[in-house]
Amino acid sequence: MQFNADMWSRRNPPLSIIASIFCFCVVDAIFKGIDDSVLFRIDWKMQSAMPERLHSIKSDPFSNQPFVFISSGNDEKYLCAVPDVSSQSKRKIESYSGPSPGELIRTLYEERLCSYWLDLYWTYELCHGRYVLQYHDEKESIRSPRTEFYLGNFRHEQTKMDDRGFDQLNPPSRKVDDVDLAYYPVNYRHGTVCDLTGKPRTATVIYVCRLDAKDQIYSFVETSSCAYEVVVLTRRLCTHPSFQPVIVPQHEIVCYARGAKKASAKPIALLALERERASSFEKEYSLIPPQSLHADSPLTSSLEEEEDEDDLDTTVILPKQSFPKDKPPSNSGEGSLANGVKRAEKRNPADNLETVLNENAEFLAGKQCLYGGGTGWWKYEFCYGKRVVQYHDDSQSGRNEILLGTFSEEIHKQWMRENPRKHPLKIDGQVLLVSHIYTGGDVCEEENIHRSVEVRIRCRPSEGSQSAVTLFLLEPHTCQYVLGVESPRFCDVLQLVDEYGLLPIPKSVRKTAD
């Protein structure tokens, strides 16, 4: 059990701290070094295990001793020894002679890579070392097919000046997935003039080390009027010791029961809570096919192996959308897919089946195909329940496309029966990933077989846009592909899949589905 100062009251409701102990002086003395980045676990022990020297300790709110007396709602009394973590400081790099963070990131500039972030209306394009662009393509309009604003442009000389004042041995940090990580900022200046401020737009790109990252955008926010912040996860920084994630030790709080007659060291209410959780877990997983209980390990390991074979082909896909001409688009995402994850936390999808399905109606009906592409020659088109196509648009010769696979429900079900580990992946009662097989693609000359693709639709929570979708295509074996489709927008709808991982089509579009 991990524990921090804030978790004490939230995760252990059976316990209440004796009021007289928690005066300001004791809080400052005992919990001085405790914050959300310091992890604790509680080890409950019987009174017989208490060291002799602790038997004589008295409750003293003005004492500087590292002990607290606590009591449960059932009047169970404990003496808890709290470790002193105030002497432990943040890791500090004294010297370093390797490439600077700017030099490590420069490889992104040299490869001319671009990363994308998709919102409901706007698409954001970060071309590393060149510019940050916000745009919208209006395919129905001939006169003004594209609206765009430059959020900032890269200036090599100004970046060199910024680097002179950057302390690479003590870089700033910020929370990413609730973990403090060091980052390297790059400023993009002189964007399109902002109507609100009368000044050019600016953007700061924050690079954070993550070993399994592929230079993807983690979040994209407007911090103030026409000033933007882009967080990019990349492994290019990870060779620099100052940017490597710090391994946080787990500290132990030992609580000794002060009643010799207690049958268990843990509080009664905590034991009841653990039994309730165990019973709930057993009921939940007794309904799941046995194979899916172990689906996490082989699925994760195989995916990691496949990703090693293609580590740069990551993109954000662009869904085909249209908006009423008399209703301007909203960036807030209110009443749309943008708040999918937040709603998923507050409601039971089964109670709002049609609502959940209608949010993704066009996608589930195969009418809203997901488009996009990476930094290479090929782009991708995914139409759910229909097909996966790899294509390239040429201004002179037109479109060249390769069919990677089409969907057949009968073939998919047979494939699922033959590959039980492909059953929907459940963790903590929530479906996080489903796999579908698309077969019968164009003939592969190298292997003399038809191409096929496994589509993996994953619930991927994000602090940024709840409608942004990430797509990546892998080729672990010649002409056999894996298409990853990840987004917060799928978190609700995945809870409605059947035993074959298939998503139901909403009634509102069932009659008109192709």
UniProtKB/TrEMBL annotation:
Residues 303-313 have a biased composition (Acidic residues). Keywords: Disulfide bond, Endoplasmic reticulum, Signal. Residues 292-350 are annotated as: Disordered. GO terms for cellular component: endoplasmic reticulum lumen. It holds the Pfam family PRKCSH. Residues 112-240, 367-493 form the MRH domain. Its main location: endoplasmic reticulum. It is found in: Endoplasmic reticulum. The keyword Aminoacyl-tRNA synthetase does not apply. GO terms for biological process: endoplasmic reticulum unfolded protein response; retrograde protein transport, ER to cytosol. PANTHER family: ENDOPLASMIC RETICULUM LECTIN 1, OS-9-RELATED. Probable lectin that binds selectively to improperly folded lumenal proteins. May function in endoplasmic reticulum quality control and endoplasmic reticulum-associated degradation (ERAD) of both non-glycosylated proteins and glycoproteins. This is Endoplasmic reticulum lectin 1. It comes from Parascaris univalens (Nematode worm).
